[in-house]
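Forwarding the complex inputs:
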Amino acid sequence: MTTEVFLQSLVSGLTQGCIYALIGLGFTIIFSVTGIINFAQGEFVMLGGMLSYFLAKSAGLSIFPALIVSIIIAMLIGAVLYLMAIRTARKASVVSLIIITIGAAIFIRGIAGELWGADPVAPPYFTGDGSISVLGASIQFQALWIVGVTLAVSIVLHLFFSYTMIGKALKASAMNRTAAGLVGVNTRTMSLVAFTLAAALGALGGVVIAPLSLTSYNVGAMLGLKGFVASSIGGFRSHIVTILGGIALGIAESLTIALNWGPFTSAYKEAIALVVLLLILLMRSRKLSQEERES
Amino acid sequence: MLATLKKNRWSYLAVAAFLLLLVLLPTQLLAEKTSILILIGIYSMVTVGLCLLMGYTGQVSLGHAAFFGTGAYLSAILSTRYDLNPWLAMLVAAIATGIFAYLISYPIFKLRGNYLAMATLGLGIIIWILFRELSQYTGGPDGLSGIPNFSIGGFVFDEKLERYFLVWLFCVGALLIAQNVVGSRAGRALKGIHGSEAAAESVGINAAQFKMKIFVLGAVYASLAGSLYAHHAHAIGPNAFDFMASVMVVTMAAVGGLASIWGAVFGAATITYISQDAIVELGRSYPKLAELDVVIYGLILMLVMIFLPKGLFVSLRDALDTWRRRRAQRGAAT
Amino acid sequence: MRKWLCLLLAMFILAAAIPLAGCGESKSEEPYKIGALFAVTGGNAPLGEPEEQTVKMMEDEINENGGINGHPVDVIVYNYESDAVKCATYAEKLITEDKVVAIIGPTGTGDSLAIVDACRDAEIPLISCAAGVSIVTPTETNDKHWIFTTPQLSVMVVQRLYEYLGDQGITKIALLTDTLGFGKDGKANLNGQAAAYGITITADQTYGATDADMLTQITLIKNSSPQAIVCWGTSPGPAIVARNMTTLSMTDIPLFGSHGIAFQSFITAAGASANGVIFPCGKLPIVNDLPDSDPQKDLLTEYRDAFNAKYGNGTANTFGGHAYDALSIVVAALKNAVEETPEKINSSDDTLQTVRGKIRDYVETKVNSTGFPETGGFPGTAGVFNMSAENHNGLAMSCLVMVKIVDGKWTLVVE
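Prediction (whole assembly, three chains):
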C-alpha cells in the first residue's frame, strides 16, 4: 500500500464514517431514552437526501433552504412515526416494537419508491464539485462539508445536552427513566423529542452525503445497519464513542479496499461492518444482558 | 399431541378436518393453486421454528431465512455438483445446519432482546453475502439451476401433486414434533413464565438448554424446508434468502401468533397467499395497488403488531374462547 | 376506542389508494393472450420498468390498429418485483390459469433460469429479456428447445468492447465493477474474454452499491498504470466513478462503460465528467447518426419517439427495447403462423398447446433471413435477429456500436 493510497483511503473512510456517526447518534439517542431500536432510522437518511433533491429540483429552492425544509419534513415524519406507531402500541414487547419499526421502514421505503421512482439522483453540491489536494490525496469540497457538519453537530449536541433544559431532561431520561420521571420530567414528551431529534440527525446525514454518493429510495437499509454498528460501538449510550466508532468503521472499510488483498474484494466490505457488529455484541454480551435485565 | 387431543373432542375434529382439507385442496378445491399450496407448506415449516423461538423465549431472530438458505444451497450444491442423492443431500444439509445453529447458539444466547435481534440480523446478512459471493459453489447472484427432483426407487417426484404431498408430509411431521416439544414439561413451564429464566430454573427447568434446543430445532426445520424448496423449484438464487425474506418469515409468525404452532400455518398461508396470489389478482384490476404491495406489507406489519400483538390467529382464537366463555356464563346465569 | 379509530383511519387511507376505475376492460372480442413477467419494482426496476412501459404502449398501439389478424391482443403483465420465487409462481399462473400462448421476459438472468424448466415442462415458448448466455445454453437437464432471448448477450457486449479496444491499440486495462448481478457478470466476462483479445488486466477492483466514492479504488488503479479503465455496472456507480476520475485529475486515462449506462440519468448525474466516456451499446441512443439504409433506423426512431412522447423526454432506452423485440417476435409469430382464432385457443387446451408449438417453431425457423429476406433477418431494436436451432439469441456482434458522450449527448463512434 503506497502512502498515496493510504491517505486517500483515510480521507474516503473519514467521509463515509462521519455519515455512519450521524446515523449512529440517531440510534443512540432513541435507544438511550426509549429503549427502542428504531429500524426506520436508515430511512430518514434516505428521506433527507431524496427530499433535498426534489425540493431543489421541482420547488426550485436553492440548496440551503432545501436542506432545512428536508430536515424539518423528516423531523415531522419522525414525530408521526413515534406518535402513531410507537406510542399507540403501549407496553408492547420488544418483539412487537422491533416488528413495528421494521414495518415502518418498509412502509416509508415503499412510499418513497412510489413517489420518486427507482433511479438514483444527485442533489447539487453545496459549494461545487471542486476538491483540494493534501499530501497527494484528493479531498472533495463536499467531503469537507461532511466532516465539518459532523464536527459542528457534535459540539452543538454537547452544548444542547449540557446547558439547555430540554437537553438536560433528555439526558436525565436516558440515564434513568424512572428517576427522571420522579423529578418531574415528562418522559413521554422526551421520547417524542428523541425520535424527532434522531430523525433530524439522520436526515442531515442524508442531505450532506447525497451529492457525493447519489441517493435512491432503497439506500436506507444498508446505511441504517452501518449506523447501528457505530451506535453499538458506543454501547448505545456514549455519543462521543458512537461518533468515533462510526468514523473508525468507515476507515476500516476503506482500508480493506486499500489493502487490496486478493479474495477479499469490496464485496466483502459490507461484511466487515457486520462482523464488527457481531464482535462488539458478543464482547459486550454480559454487560448488555445485565442492562436488559435491569430495564 | 395425543395427550392434548384427548382433552377435547373438538381438537380431534379440527385435526381430522385439517387433514381432509390437505387432501382435498390440491385435488378438488384449488387444483390450479397447487404451487402456492406447496409454498405454504414449505414456509409453514420455516415459520413454526420461528414461532417456537419467539413465543417461548420471547426473543426474535431476524436472520431465520439464512437457515432456510443453507438448507436450500447445501442440498442444491451436493445434488448437482457432487451428484449426491437428493435425500442424502437434504439430510447432510439438515445436519450441517443443525450443528451450525448449535455452535452459534452458545454465543448468541448470551444476548437478549434488541441485541439478540441485531446479532441474528448481522449473521443472516453475512450468510446472504456468502451465498452471493462464493460464486464457484453457489453460482453467485444468478444462483443454481437444474436441481434434480426427489425420487424413491423408480418413482420420481416430478409432478406438482406428488411434491405437494411430500412437502406436507414433512410439514405435518414437523408440526407434530413441535407440539411434542411444546407439550413437554419444559415447554409448558416456560410458556407460563414466558421466558423468565430465573423463575423457570426455580422449578427445576433448564431454561437455557431448552432455548438452544428450540433454536436448533427451528434451524433444522428451516433447513429441511429449504431443501424441499430447492428440489421443488429446481432453481435457487441468493435473493430468496435475504433480510426481506427473514422479515417475511417474522411477519408470518407475527400474523399467525407467536407461540402458536397452528398459528404458524395460518400466518404462512395468509402471507404467502397475499404476496404470491392476491396482490397479482388485484393488480390485474387495480394496477396501482400491485405497485403498492411493499407499502401494504409494511402497513400490515405495523397494524398487526400495534393492534393485535398476539397475532391474528391467536387473537381470533382468544376471541372465540372469550365468546364461548361469555355464552356459557350467560347460560349459567339464566 | 382510540385504537379502533386509528385502525379504521388506516384502512380508509388504504382504500383511498385504490382508484375507482372499473375492473379491467371487457373486450368485446376474445383476445390473443400473451404473458409478460417484468421486475417493475425491486433491484431490477431500472430495467423492468421501461420494459413494462414499452409493452403497455405496444399493446395499445396494436389494438388501436385492428389487432393481430383482426383479433385484439391482451398482454398480461405480472410484476414479480425482482423476486425469483414470485417469478416462478407468476410464470405458472400465466401458463395454467391465464393460459397464454407465450411468455416474454423475465427481466433478470437468475429469474429467467428459475423458470426455464417450467416452460420446458409446459411446452410454452419463453422469450426472455435477460442477457445471460446461460439462459439459452443447452444443459444436461434442459436443452432450451423452448427458450429464446432478445438482448445482446452480455458476453458479446464485452467482446465488442475488447474488439474496439484492440483497434485503438489499448491492451492494458483496469476493471472497476459493482458487486450486484450486472457488475459481477461483467467482471466474469471481462476476465474470461481478456486472453482471447490480447488484453491484460492490470487491476481488478470492485465497489458497493451504496459507496460514497471510489477514490481509493481509482487511486489503486492509477498506480497500476493502465491505458484505460473499464467500469461495468448500473447507476449510480459509474456516475460516481466518472466524477471521481475528474476529481483525481485523471484526464489522460479514458473511461469505458457498459451498456448499463445507456440512460439519460447517467449523463445528468455525472455532469461534465460524462463527456468522453465510451461504451458499447445497441443502436438506440445514436439512431440519428445511422445511415438511412440501416434496416433498424425507422423502427428505432419510431420506438424512441413514441416512448418519449408517452413517458417523458429522454426516457427511451435500450432495455425497454428488449421487451419491444420480444413482443414483436411473438406478434409476428401470431400474425404469420397461427390461423387458430383466440376463441378456439381459449376454449381448448389442445389448441393452446398446438399454438404454443407453432409459435416456438416460427421463432426458431422464421425469425431470420429466411423469413425476412429483404432486411437480412428480423429487425428489432437490439439488432437484426437470425434465430436458428443452434442459436436462440440470433444477434451478431455487428448489432452493437460504440457510443461516445460528447457535450452531454450520445454520438456514434465511427470505426
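Chain C touches chain A through 37 residues (CB under 8 Å).
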